[in-house]
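W.,

You were right to be curious about this one. When I first looked at the sequence I had no strong expectations either way, so I just let the prediction run and decided to look at it fresh. Below is the sequence, 277 residues in total, followed by the output.
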Amino acid sequence: MKTIAGKTVVLTGASGGIGVFIARALAREQATVVGVSRSKESLEQICAEVKITGGRCINIPFDISKLEELPVLVQQIHELAGPIDILINNAAVEKYRPFQNYTLEDIQAILTTNLLAPMELTRLMLPSMVNRNIGHIVNIASGSGKKGAPYNSVYSASKAGMIMWSDAMRQELTNTNVGVSVVCPGYTSAGMFLNFGLPAPSLARVHRPIDVAIAVIQAIKKNQGEVVLDGILTRLLFSNVQLFPNFGDAIYRWIGLTKLNKTCAENQMRGENSAQN
């Protein structure tokens, strides 16, 4: 069982959504949280919470989508916090669309933030972990990376890439004390569909963000390779969709996921058009 107390943890996307709950959970474990996010004000707020809870916090406002500047971020982290023990790649962007309605900029933004930035951050931080023979990488993926979500295809692709990359990297590091975990939340009460006042699909289990944070802590402590937060029916679906993809498609239509995501896409595009006008 690994310990988190006293460890230095870099957490991207620390100031919003699930990231806030992960930061709080790390604080309860007495970790030093290096929060990275674009919002300086939100980072300051979560850092204050971390300190009240008993952890130590350093906030670094930074846009991780600027890949060529990530070495500067890593250098800044080392100067402020010292060697990094744990990296949690949590930052992500999500945009619902029929695929033909995505722009090139949409596709680049989603893939850069959700997949390329985590890869580059890990590439820059991993050598120190390997040299010290201690460390852990946690990648926050999604159930959408296990079975593609209609009207959310680019996000699904980014999360599927994260799952496979984590799998391969974990195998490379099997003879070291550097662990790799991928955590796949399902629907959470902080999800996009709730922002539009929409119910979750029937039979879907809706997790609290704190449940995801607890799963992340346990994945680190127990060095779990993959954690899927979802109900038994969804897990069974994920285990069979590679053999029976049409069956998986039918299940998604039956539980209302396809219709839900289409509505999310319509609402999101309508909101963006209203903002532009």
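Here's what jumped out at me. DSSP finds ten helices and nine strands in the chain. And, maybe more interesting for your project: The two ends are 55 Å apart (CA to CA).

Coffee later to discuss?

I.
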